[in-house]
Design a protein that fits this description.
It is built from 1 helix and 8 strands. The chain is mainly β. It has one domain. Strands 1-2-3-4 form a 4-stranded mixed sheet, with no helix packed on it. The chain has a 4-stranded antiparallel sheet with strand order 5-6-7-8. The two termini are about 25 Å apart. It holds the Pfam family BubE.
């Protein structure tokens, strides 16, 4: 069951912040947590970060972090463990969500 868009966006703004879970390897697990991001790390190299689309469509979003990838994203984590991504995330298929992830919060682009 999908929540109304306004309710999901209110939860993103005022609900708990998203966290970061780290898995060993160069790929994401088959099942992702409902809210948190998953970082695939092999040794000391970060490969990709994955999450479920915050709009509620349940689509998996996988963003590459390795320097050779195009496009690629930068992941930073503040001292409280809240992840941020640069640049914004724009889903090109399906729901076409466009958002920033800053300090564990989704900030929607209108």
């Amino acid at each position: 069951m999908m929540l109304p868009r306004w309710l999901g966006r209110a939860f993103d703004r005022y609900g708990p912040r998203r966290g970061l879970k780290i898995v060993e390897g160069d790929s994401l697990p088959a099942r992702l947590p409902r809210r948190d991001l998953v970082l695939a790390r092999e040794g000391d190299e970060d490969w990709c970060v994955g999450m479920r689309c915050p709009c509620g469509c349940r689509q998996t979003i996988e963003l590459l972090l390795i320097r050779e990838a195009k496009p690629r994203w930068d992941l930073s984590v503040d001292p409280a463990g809240r992840p941020s991504l640069r640049p914004s995330v724009w889903v090109q298929t399906g729901c076409r969500s466009h958002f920033w992830l800053r300090r564990g919060r989704v900030e929607w682009c209108e």
